[in-house]
Write a structure and sequence with these properties.
Blueprint (H helix, E strand, L loop, with lengths): L5 H8 L10 E3 L2 E3 L2 H8 L6 E5 L11 H13 L3 E5 L26 E5 L2 H4 L8 E3 L3 H13 L7 H13 L1 H25 L4 E2 L7 E5 L7 H11 L5 E2 L10 E5 L4 H20 L1
Parallel strand pairs: 3-4, 4-5
Antiparallel strand pairs: 1-2, 5-6, 7-8, 8-10, 9-10
Helix pairs in contact: 2-3, 7-9
Enzyme class: lyase
GO molecular function: cysteine-S-conjugate beta-lyase activity; pyridoxal phosphate binding
Pfam family, one: Aminotran_1_2
Length: 277
């Protein structure tokens, strides 16, 4: 952590214990703590690891070296991996996404690679996703578990939508990525010139901006109130992603520039009023 908060909900709702390996912010870049990961993976009670790649909310696109080290640790300790790759199509210029499924074959025996068109093409309402399980025995095990839960069949509209998006959506997606990247650059410049107490963590992938607001000196609820009640802008405050996210906010920049401009103007007024008071 910090990480996409429904992971925590899913673990706790299944009466399992959350074991978090904290990401470290070194300068303006988050990095995995492999020593900590190895220590926690060595616990026989740890059976499953969830990897968010690209990472939501910190925006890292893990490189092959990082993924290989992660895979080695999990493989050596018999820990299965769920690789959440839902933002894998949304990679910013100059970065390259590496799928867990392309790592060395010895790491693919115990992995579930999860993808979907939902984030890329805004098709979440079709409720269609993909779980890629390279190992045949593990794939059969997953099928049995899904049937036991009464989960079978797919949405036919979702199948058609997914096929159409993947076959015909690339030109549109390229334009979207350019637009998101432009919005991120605008956000970064605005914060530096108008709100220096708020800093954008460089985003390598996803359309989610992770903004460091710790210099405002506000706790989680106070920061939430500032954004929602004073600025009237609905952001995700960082504490919901785990205690490691305290003092941060997550902002969706997959929007019109006008919307982003209006939101930032509201935040600027609210922050200035707060600091002035």
């Amino acid at each position: 952590r910090p990480v996409y908060h429904p992971f925590t909900f899913s673990i706790e709702n299944n009466q399992r214990e959350v074991v978090s390996s904290t990401l470290h912010l070194t300068g303006d870049r988050y990095e995995m703590d492999f020593d900590d990961l190895a220590e926690k993976a060595a616990d026989p009670a740890v059976k499953l690891a969830i990897l968010c790649s690209p990472h939501n909310p910190v925006g890292r696109v893990w490189n092959r070296e990082e993924l290989t080290r992660y895979a080695q640790i999990c493989s050596e300790n018999g820990v299965r991996v769920v690789a959440d790759e839902l933002h894998s199509d949304l990679i910013m210029p100059g970065r390259q996404f590496v799928s867990y499924g392309t790592l060395d074959e010895r790491f693919l025996k115990d992995v579930f690679v999860c993808t979907a068109p939902s984030k890329t093409f805004s098709l979440a309402g079709l409720q269609t996703s993909n779980i890629i399980v390279p190992d045949a025995e593990l794939r059969d095990e997953l099928r049995l578990e899904l049937r036991a839960l009464g989960l079978w069949g797919t949405n036919p509209f979702g199948l058609v939508g997914t096929e159409a998006a993947y076959n015909h959506g690339e030109p549109w997606l390229e334009q979207v990525i350019d637009y998101i990247w432009s919005n991120l650059q605008y956000l970064d410049k605005f914060l530096k010139s108008h709100l220096p107490s708020m800093k954008l963590i460089p985003i390598e992938g996803t359309y989610l901006a992770w903004v460091d607001c710790r210099d405002l000196g506000l706790g989680g609820e106070a920061l939430k109130s500032l954004m929602m009640d004073d600025a009237r802008v609905y952001l995700d405050t960082g504490h919901i992603f785990g205690p490691e996210g305290e003092g941060f906010v997550r902002m969706n920049v997959a929007c019109r520039r006008q919307t982003l401009e209006q939101a930032l103007a509201r935040i600027e007024r609210a922050v200035n009023d707060q600091m002035g008071g």
